[in-house]
Model the fold of this input.
Amino acid sequence: MGFLSVLSFAHKLVKERVRSGDAVVDATVGTGVDTLFLAQAAGETGTVYGFDIQPQALALAEERLRKALGERCRIADGSGPEGGRANVRLLLRSHAELAAALPAPLHGRIAAVMFNLGYLPAAFADTGVITLAETTLPALEGALAVLKPGGIATIVLYPGHEGGGAEADAVERWCAALPGTTAQAVIYRMLQKSDAPYMIALEKK
Done:
């Protein structure tokens, strides 16, 4: 049967904690896999905020959402009272701006934040555009600030590509240094493959 993939395990952890009507965040939209998952988990009355710095990523995510949810899901740029199966607000902004971009009333009320680091996994994508510790660490600080007590952040890391190992090491050190009174941190990885993707999850106290 085998173990769950890191992405499947991240989804499992989030699904156990997100309820219909929750506000959730996809900090790295990419092609929209996690965005769609969060939209389905949050349900008709929930809200998903998605962040990415590449317009083509947001376009791919919007296409995925529309194919899967159709008219049940309205997608917007973050402004206005959108309705539908889930309010999905795709923002052309860095995940480092996460806390500043979210409405103040949602601070301390976000149920889950998902990070899938690395680069945009699309044939036409520029693989030189990658997530970096210098923006990812502030994004993680922002995620902890906006999460509710018991809320979760999942971080999928890719040490196998150039630059990915340095980011993964920085994120792991940052998470390990968190006081236990702030968050609980766990790690999920294949011990025999040092360059395989792995996941860190944080649960806010």
